[in-house]
Design goal:
By secondary structure, this protein is mainly beta. The chain has one domain: Beta Barrel (OB fold (Dihydrolipoamide Acetyltransferase, E2P)), CATH 2.40.50.180. The protein has a 5-stranded mixed beta sheet with strand order 8-1-2-10-9. Strands 3-6-7 form a 3-stranded antiparallel beta sheet, with helices on one face. It has a two-stranded antiparallel ribbon with strand order 4-5.
Length: 155
């Protein structure tokens, strides 16, 4: 059974998800896939607590720990065999730039106002959606921050 969404022409479709008890959202157009996979592979000179890579359709997908991208405390690492969810996020500016973001769960698909690009932070604003405060993420900044973190870690 498919759902029908009615939207304002000025709105965009958003995916909300949780990481460590905090709700985030980003435009669904920037989410390439919700991937369920067990364990990450290590990257030389990159501590496991900071990230790794996944095999994503035969390509190496960079994964960066959410606390480095979004702030907050480090999350206890799951066992190598335990399946977890990752959002595969694109920066839409360059199809070769993708990121795997470990998440706890997808919570909803909804419509909301387009993102406001203030400052240079990954979380660009906080707004109420469906009765809760949601941290709105700028996907281009998220992917760029991940690239910076990886470059600093392996340099």
């Amino acid at each position: 059974m498919s759902e029908t969404f009615e939207s304002d022409p000025e709105s965009e479709r958003l995916m909300t998800f949780e990481v460590a008890g905090t709700t985030y959202a980003l435009p669904i157009a920037d989410v390439l896939e919700v991937l369920e996979q067990a364990g990450m592979n290590c990257v030389p000179r990159l501590p496991k607590e900071q990230g790794g890579v996944l095999n994503w359709h035969g390509e190496a997908l960079t994964v960066v720990a959410p606390h480095l991208l979004l702030g907050g405390e480090p999350i206890a690492r799951r066992g190598a065999e335990e399946v977890q969810q990752f959002l595969v996020v694109s920066d839409r500016n360059d199809s070769s730039m993708q990121l795997g973001l470990p998440i706890d769960c997808v919570t909803a698909l909804t419509f909301g106002e387009p993102l406001l690009a203030r400052g240079d932070e990954v979380v660009v604003e906080r707004r109420p959606i469906d009765g809760r405060v949601v941290n709105m993420i700028n996907p281009q900044r998220l992917v760029a921050r991940a690239a910076e973190i990886i470059e600093r870690a392996v340099a």
